[in-house]
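B., you asked whether I could sanity-check this one before it goes into the benchmark set. Here's the sequence:
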Amino acid sequence: MSMSPFWRFLLCTCLLTSCSADFTRTTQKETPTPQAKYEPLLPPEIYAFLGEQAIMSTFIRFPEESRAAFIGERLEVDLDNYRFSPKQVHLKAWTITQITLSNTSHNMHYFGGRDFFKYGAEIISFSKSLAPPELTHIPVAANSSRIVYLFAKDPGEYPLNCNVPKHTQLGMKGSLIVE
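And here's what the prediction gave me:
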């Protein structure tokens, strides 16, 4: 049985209202730690629906010119000699954010974290081959930049790190916070 867009929207609104209230009560009592086990707040089909809605609300399409323009929030993150700047990256839940990752060092670096890409966000890709589901970090070549679009999902604080050996131990870590 298929559900009309109106009923899907209504169901998502009800679920989000309920989940965000539960999350607020939970976070007021205790602060999540990087070692905490995360659980998805919603079923996968609801995330898919919310992702589609976020795409439609943050991209303006120009079919006659075969292009689209992004009208959502934009952030810049610098990856440099064993640090992220800013150290805490804040994303708004259930929205898409364009992030420019700039690596100004002579080493390859990676941006991400296992729990962040499993529970906190999904990469919006216009070519399925660019964003495999098991992706945990985004590579950024030395002395280069890349733009990624992230759909922020479940509110929480997720560990951010570079997964090049020893980079995390040398200080290349931070937090990805979905609010």
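One thing to flag: Confidence is low (pLDDT under 50) at residues 10-36. Otherwise nothing jumped out at me.
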